[in-house]
Amino acid sequence: MGKINKLLLLAGMSLLTLTACGQAEKTETTEGASEGSDTLVVYSPNSEGLINATIPAFEEKYGVKVELIQAGTGELFTKLESEKNAPVADVIFGGAYSQYAQSTELFEEYVPEENDQLVEAYQNTTGFYTPYTIDGSVIVVNPDLVGDISIEGYADLLNEELKGKIATADPANSSSAFAQLTNMLAAKGGYESDEAWEYVHELFTLVDGKISSSSSNVYKTVADGEMAVGLTYEDPAVKLLNDGANIEIIYPKEGTVFLPASVAVIKGAENMDNAKLFVDFVISEEIQNVLGTTTTNRPVRKDAETSENMKALADIETLEEDMEFVIENKDSIVKRFTDIFVDIESNR
């Protein structure tokens, strides 16, 4: 065999070897993807607005296909409990802190890298779930109906001129109304303070039995001019302002409690890496600014941008809820309220 032919043969053999190695590497990568690296299953009770601000952006940025299952918070946590030995979901995205605090056995331990960039009071300190937005109890007023009555906080609601004109939902059945109740208790002396509970008695005497059937009915009746004042929460109130409603949002001067919505990785998740990536994503500067400027959900990241109708957190007098106490004593708080309400109604 000539020298040139030998060189050509050796070159061909080298090319075949390189091609085979390349095919082996490609096969290995493909197998990794087939093990779930391009998929994420998310359970969420969140609104369409919040979902649309996060899920498509995550899919586009990372090339991950999200399978979204939406239902109420309670229903989703019941599903997680029933599936804990064979998890379907990789992430639970949304829901009140109380649900998460009572369900840590369902979660994989994970603290995102940028946890220290969140407002200190809302950082992941449990190791299992991470707040990504916060929502506060507020008072909404219809300026045409309150007239010259000055309302800056809870104390100003104890005005006989407002009797029958204050809208609220039932704290025994509405999570936002219960949050409002614990906010006013904290603001007026504490969850077990007789003075605070006397305030509740006086306020609900003025409510005059007009308990709304749903939390959404509270802010709608104020915006529609049916009620002068509503005890509600920030998210829908800001949306009303954005839509041009004739309302004002009052953050009680005694202090507003902001409660977190959280996200967590499911224990034993099939797509574990993507689940952790999603948690990192929703608290990233990019998404926190999107939430603050394009939705009515208040971001939890320090110095995140917010819309014109969302007052800066630094400009609001805030209170911290004793979450552990409220979780442990929710039933007794509800019972004490119910007893007061029954007493008021029996003497009305």
Q: In short, what is this structure?
A:
It holds the Pfam family SBP_bac_8. This protein is of the alpha/beta class. Helix content is 46%, strand content 17%.
Task: Write the SSE topology.
Layout: H1 3-37, E1 39-44, H2 48-62, E2 65-70, H3 73-82, E3 91-96, H4 97-101, E4 129-141, H5 143-146, E5 166-169, H6 175-187, H7 194-207, E6 211-212, H8 215-223, E7 229-233, H9 234-242, E8 248-250, E9 256-265, H10 272-282, H11 285-294, E10 298-299, E11 318-319, H12 323-346
Parallel strand pairs: 1-2, 1-3, 5-6, 5-7, 9-11
Antiparallel strand pairs: 3-9, 4-7, 4-8, 4-9, 4-10
Helix pairs in contact: 6-7, 7-12
Looking at this protein, list some descriptive labels.
alpha/beta, D-Maltodextrin-Binding Protein, domain 2, 2 domains, 46% helix, thiamine pyrophosphate binding, Ferric-bd, coiled coil
Protein described:
- This protein has two domains: 39-134 and 259-312, Periplasmic binding protein-like II (D-Maltodextrin-Binding Protein, domain 2, 3-Layer(aba) Sandwich), CATH 3.40.190.10; 135-257 and 320-347, Periplasmic binding protein-like II (D-Maltodextrin-Binding Protein, domain 2), CATH 3.40.190.10.
- Strand 1, helix 2 and strand 2 (65-70) form a beta-alpha-beta unit.
- The chain is α/β, with parallel strands linked by helices and 348 residues long.
- The protein is built from twelve helices and eleven strands.
